[in-house]
Design a protein that fits this description.
330 residues; mainly alpha; 13 helices
Amino acid sequence: MTAPRLLLRRLAFSTTHPQSSSLSTRPSGLFSALSQCLKTSTVARTSFQACTLRAYATQRGRPKKGVTSSSSSKKPAKKPAPKRKQKAKSIPAKKPAKKKRTVKRKTDEQIISAKVRALRQVALLDVPKQRPTTVWTIYNQQHIGKGAPVTDQVRQNGREYRNLSVTQRESLNQTAINNRALNTRTYSDWVRSHTPDQIRLANNARARLNRLAGQRHSTGYRFTKRYTLLKDDRQLKRPKSGFMQFMADRWATGEFAGVKVQEASKTMTQDWKNLSESDRKQYNDDAFARKEVYLTESAELYPSIAEKQQRDRAAMERRNARGRSETLGR
């Protein structure tokens, strides 16, 4: 082995193992000897270039392919992700307080109007219109025209009516008789077109309307329209009480003929109080028997009464059952 190459190996070994190298082989002495050799031959220069490459190799040798050094194996540090701005917490808006419902109180006029509307729907107000049944009304109706005021026409018709002949009056009278018969037949047919129960409910509604017509309220409102009760021979007559039957019997004797009704009623009321217990009981027992017959017949004729009786019986049974359960619980 040539001297320059040997010197180069010693130099490489001394750089990698400085503690194991002796003092004679320290890098300072080697560099001086190596510089002498490099000046003398070209072979030494080429050997130096090759040895310098090996001298800086690691102790383990050359790195394997595909394996990077520790410095190169470090991955670049990731940039920290930008911090997201936290959204400001939205404070929920307060819900508006619920408004209290103010219940408007109805006035007396509004209450009565509502009652009147409800009763009118049941009162059967579509009664057929009646034809005139007197001679004067027939003549006046025939001669009322358009144009002049009605009052002037009525005055003129009155003057002409006084001067009518006998034949004209007889003709008008016959017309009035025919109108009466036609009215009776029309009215009877209209009543028969409704059930007895409908006529009964209509009469009850008309009676309540008539009672409202006589009432005056705080607002000054007054309902003045009055209605006549419907006539129907199919309707059952309400039975008389014991006192009313007693008064009817007293009136039938003729004892109070020519006496005012108010005075006669006072006398009969006092006589009723002075009756013996047996006589009064007889009147009351007869009235109770008549009432039982009326209830039986009305339940057959009026479906609404039958339904009401069933509801009343069911309610009574529930009350009795509740009372029995309470007594057993005790």
